[in-house]
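Sample intake sheet
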Amino acid sequence: MTPASRTALVTGSSGFIGYHLCQRLLSEGWTVIGIDALTDYYDVALKERRQAMLLQHPLFRTETARIETPGVLETLFATHAPDAVIHLAAQAGVRYSIDNPESYVEANLIGTFRLLEAARAHPPAHLLLASTSSVYGANTEMPYAETDKADTQMSFYAATKKANEAMAHSYAHLYGLPTTMFRFFTVYGPWGRPDMALFKFTKAILSGAPIDVYNHGNMKRDFTYVDDLVTGIVQLLAQPPIRPAGPADIPEGDSLSPVAPYRIVNIGNSEPVDLLSYIGAIEAATGKPAQKNLMDMQPGDVPATWADATLLNRLTGDRPTTSVTEGVARFVAWYRDYYRL
């Protein structure tokens, strides 16, 4: 199958990661079908700008709709018969899930159910679904490996993502759907979400406003630059899991299910960076000092994340490499250009 003949369906196509993924797929000759609800969780104008840029490409088309609406995904699958499906649409945010948990039930649970039903009726060659490092929850042994037990989620957002993993596994087992779950680790970069730390910190520092630094700065994150994440997703597209004949056929350290064509893969930089160093990178890129408002840990948060990317490397021969210094500088440059600062 030549790239020009391949069709990918991307849910959440006007989101931060969805936009970057669609651009990469289009650059490689894929026809891309997007769907996005353009919800007002954050600045709709930013989503509309991303969508407008994608629509400039002749191989991109999109639908504005909620994935949880009955029949919407079924129609898209039936009409376009996608070879690959990358499911990114979700209600994001750890803290927002405390205030508005119902939106997570609708988008993350019901929406994913609708997607799995559509895939069952019109099976793609590979179904990839976004999960999150947050599913590791209260685990303290690091780096996090895909084979680690992950049953102690700390937020309702993380709980819905862990539920998505279980739901997808059941469909992979019952209907033979080749399925890869990928767990993100603190993704950042140009066109990022305004509710995330890098965006908020940059905005505040440039305007001379204070920033809230949780857990008094004693936080570490495995910051992953968005282009590295997208590279991992695209490379995994060519690696659909195959149901093993038995447990003995599963390589050591592989998260491949013994009863389904299903695998979980971490996509992270494998180099946790402390929050104060991250802020230092923003200060260097903006040329301005941060006014730090040191605060206690917020409910639902965890003090550290750290990905073991060994499986990603074994499957694709690659792993994220962009340094925080380089990635933050690219974001700040985009931010200044976008807001004409």
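Comment: Residues 12 and 18 are 6 Å apart (CA to CA). Residues 101-121 form the longest helix (21 residues).
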